[in-house]
Design a protein that fits this description.
about 230 residues, Helix Hairpins, about 75% helix, 5 helices, three-stranded mixed sheet, mainly alpha
């Protein structure tokens, strides 16, 4: 089997692979991905905080109504004239006043707790919104730098792709299909030379029968790294 063309193809493809990896691992691209995730997390958190604040406000409004009704009842009890009451009625009135007073104290504590919770949530909400806005601002900055890098490398990438497209015409279709399939699976380099009795990439030692087959057919897939080992 003539490996000259496919090896020449891989040599050119290695330049493309380098450029693609340069873009893939570009720190500005990585930062954009991190900021996108931060923005999504902040947005989700702000939605949750809004729901929590709304629930607490509804509870506070209900508590306010109960407080006002209880206070009104207590006020009515204070204005009642004991001269027109029996001893039992006076005792019941005093007991009711104590109960109303206790309820007002409990309501007051709950109201204070709700107010503190709402203030805490609002402060957290404001921090979250600030974080979200900062993430958007930073994203725009890093996205600009990444786009600038893409614009710089894109002509070189397109040039290499065009060159590879032309080279494919001189390569056996089956070999080309196998190569492109492995390339798509992030296996690169696809073809590696036999190094002694080992795979030229992962260094796995081949059995005597595998080496014999390789020398006969000129190519063999490595059982470990799935690359194509070739023998010259």
């Amino acid at each position: 089997m003539d490996l000259k063309n496919i090896l020449a193809y891989q040599q050119v493809d290695s330049k493309l692979y380098e450029l693609e990896n340069e873009l893939l691992q570009d720190p500005n691209k990585v930062k954009c991905a991190q900021l996108t995730q931060l923005a999504k997390t902040s947005q989700a958190k702000s939605n949750t905080l809004e729901e929590q604040a709304g629930s607490l406000l509804r509870e506070m409004n209900e508590l306010t109504k109960n407080y006002e009704l209880t206070f009104k009842k207590g006020d009515e009890l204070l204005k009642s004239n004991p001269e027109n009451m029996t001893k039992q009625q006076i005792d019941d009135n005093l007991a009711l006043k104590d109960k109303v007073s206790q309820n007002l104290t409990l309501l007051d504590k709950r109201y204070t707790h709700l107010a503190e919770s709402i203030n805490s949530i609002l402060a957290d909400f404001n921090r979250t919104v600030k974080s979200y806005n900062q993430a958007k601002e930073d994203y725009a900055k890093y996205k600009y730098l990444y786009d600038k890098k893409v614009a710089e490398l894109e002509p070189k990438i397109n040039e290499l792709k065009n060159e590879l497209a032309k080279m494919q015409k001189g390569i056996d279709a089956k070999i080309m299909q196998t190569y492109l399939s492995k390339r798509a699976d992030k296996i690169f380099p696809v073809l590696v030379k036999l190094d002694g009795n080992n795979c030229g990439r992962c260094r796995m030692e081949l059995s005597a029968s595998a080496i014999s087959k390789l020398k006969e057919e000129k190519i063999l897939q490595c059982e470990h790294c799935r690359r194509i080992i070739y023998f010259e």
